[in-house]
Design goal:
11 helices; 8-stranded parallel β-barrel; 300 residues; PEnolPyrv_PMutase_core; two-stranded antiparallel ribbon; TIM Barrel; alpha/beta; ICL/PEPM
Length: 300
């Protein structure tokens, strides 16, 4: 019998799997994957002490761009990234959330929603900024302009209007805390985006203590106990999942760590081969060829 890479899943099953996992578990861990091998690691790694695994994959515009040697300025469109998404889907079964930056023009966003949904993606995240995209962790150190809440609501409504299935999720990412426009602005926008049809809210912050995230969640949950809240704790990385879950957060995304770790490892290996004039010294930091071959079912 010819071995297959995974048990198999249809696009519609995969598309609905994020929403069903949320309903079943209430709290999900998502990690970035920028190519099939990193996605295989994301799906198969397990903490043996607790039995914890990752519940899904984050397709990051930052890491997708960086892995191609391109700046993170929304140069890559969804149509440019779909082949990589399909390659990841060919070897995995867990759900994927796609980072779509601002979502582009409203009319273009509708096409992207259809394309992602048809491919089996479970959710798309769009952020409420406009103009040339800059990475959020730069904050006001660079020029970033927040989109008007009314126009962003139009984009959400249009995306929900054109999607075909009920399971596909459109997630609204709020940049108010990043751009320091205030907690009240963030909460007002969250209520408006939910009213416009957003299936979840991603609240982002670059503060290291996480206090403003917890403040947002407390205030949001006073009026809304149902809509999922998503966070990306890149800056406040000392806060554990258990604390985030206890605060009322439903999804945590580790958004760029796989690429960052791979880059350091590759740089170190390349440098030390040059330094020593041979590869012997780097072998302890490399998988054996046999282990590489064993990574992928069907190699033998």
């Amino acid at each position: 019998m010819i071995p297959v890479t995974h048990p198999g899943i249809t696009n519609s099953e995969r598309c609905s799997s994020l929403r069903s996992r949320l309903q079943e578990k209430g709290f999900l861990r998502i990690i970035e994957a920028h190519n099939p091998i990193s996605a295989l690691i994301a799906e198969n790694v397990i903490c043996e002490d607790s039995g914890t695994t990752f519940d899904g994959i984050w397709s990051s515009s930052l890491t997708d761009s960086t892995s191609r040697g391109l700046p993170d300025i929304e140069k890559l469109r969804i149509s440019d990234r779909i082949s990589n998404i399909n390659e990841i889907f060919s070897v995995t079964t867990i759900p994927m959330i796609v980072d779509a930056d601002t979502g582009g023009l409203i009319e273009h966003f509708g096409y992207d929603v259809r394309l992602l949904e048809r491919s089996g993606v479970s959710a798309v995240v769009i952020e409420d900024k406009k103009g040339l995209k800059k990475n959020s962790l730069l904050g006001n150190d660079v020029v970033q302009i927040q989109e008007s809440a009314e126009i962003f609501c139009e984009k959400i409504r249009y995306g929900k209007q054109v999607q075909v299935s009920r399971e596909f999720m459109i997630i609204a990412r709020i940049e108010s805390l990043i751009l320091e426009t205030g907690m009240e602005d963030a909460l007002t926008r969250a209520a408006m985006y939910v009213e416009a049809g957003a299936d979840a809210i991603l609240i982002h912050s670059r503060k290291q203590n996480g206090n403003e995230i917890f403040e947002f969640v407390r205030n949001f949950r006073r009026d809304n106990t149902v809509t999922p809240i998503i966070v990306v704790p890149t800056s406040y990385n000392t806060i554990c999942c258990a604390e985030l879950q206890d605060a009322g957060i439903n999804v945590v995304i580790y958004a760029n760590h796989m690429l960052r770790a791979a880059y350091l490892a590759m740089k170190d290996v390349a440098f030390n081969i040059l330094k020593h004039g041979r590869s012997y010294e780097v072998e302890p930091n490399c998988l054996s060829i046999k282990e590489v071959l064993n990574l992928i079912p069907g190699t033998y």
